[in-house]
Amino acid sequence: MRLGLIGLGRIGAFHAQTLSELPGVGSLVVTDAVPAVTAEVAGRVGAEAVESPAKLLAAGVDGVLIAAATDAHPELLLAAVDAGLPTFCEKPLARAATDALAVAERVRATGVAVQVGYPRRFDPGFLAARAAVVNGELGWLHTVRSTTLDPAPPPPAYIAGSGGIFRDCAVHDFDAVRWVTGREVVEVYATGSNRGEQFIAEAGDVDTAATVLTLDDATLALVSNSRYNPRGYDVRLELHGSADSVAAGLDDGLPLRSTEPGVTFPSGPPHGFFMDRLAAAFRAELAAFAQVVAGERPSPCTVDDAMEVVWIAEAAALSLREHRPVRIDEVRRLPG
């Protein structure tokens, strides 16, 4: 199998290394907007370097992965599917909800398989939690708690272009809640605060957020996000039901210190960043995409899945701005 990878920044270079080690990927073609980066990554992982996305699409690849900057996602994704190539695209489909919806509609019209990057769907703990729900081990759910805490804020330029904590960070929690529970979100209430770097507030964003999601079966999901967790990168999911409770992310790398006497869990070292916390998930995610390209499975995270997360994020942003609950069907109808 011959795959193409567009965008070789932090996550793109990480994907290049993973793809170079995947069985079944016989060759890899890479490109980046910075030629020196293209040459460096290609040399390091033994890939073929090309000068542009257009040349990559014409290089006889069987599938394409897009890890470029967010603003480039729509054009690159549509070019790939118009060429009939199965495509993996990092979230989001586009910066604005209206643009994402237009991209999703174009993708559906082509019938080409597209997988959107939500790696928690491939994390072993999250998979086991979903299996517990599907198998009925938990009874009926009443409470879900999903957590993403970053060790430190991204740079100011990243924050300014991120679209805000709900669209950039909490979307992973929103997707995990939908996927693990198998339910849809019908209402959102969000709040947030700023106690850290001023540049986050200046960008119109918050550094810490809490979101309550009401699911269509009346389950409540509580989502917690912050740019400040200096102990490490904290990703967890708790599911509480009428028959049992389970949690994903309670391993020895959990960046949380117990104050109970004699308790040594977690033994550490804490997870430092998302690439070590979710290393197994990223590998499984890209292996799944290779299966999509080979026609062995459908996309495990479609553009329709991605759009549902977009609506939740838009509702959260509106709720924060107007200090009120927002129903998902309201944001779907909003002009623009």
Task: Characterise this structure.
The protein is an alpha/beta fold and 336 residues long. The chain folds into 2 domains: 2-112, Rossmann fold, CATH 3.40.50; 121-277 and 308-331, 2-Layer Sandwich (Dihydrodipicolinate Reductase, domain 2). The protein is 41% helix and 21% strand. The protein has helices at 10-21, 35-45, 53-57, 73-82, 97-110, 124-134, 156-162, 165-181, 198-202, 274-277, 279-293, 303-322, 328-333; strands at residues 2-6, 27-31, 48-49, 63-66, 87-90, 114-117, 141-149, 185-193, 208-215, 220-226, 234-241, 245-248, 326-327. The strands form 2 sheets. The protein has a 7-stranded mixed sheet with strand order 12-11-7-10-9-8-13. Strands 3-2-1-4-5-6 form a 6-stranded parallel sheet, sandwiched between helices. Strand 9 (208-215) and strand 10 (220-226) form a beta hairpin. Helix 1 (10-21) packs parallel to helix 2, helix 4 packs parallel to helix 5 (97-110) and helix 6 packs across helix 8 (165-181). The longest helix is centred in the last third of the chain and has 20 residues, at 303-322. The model has no long low-confidence stretch (mean pLDDT 96).
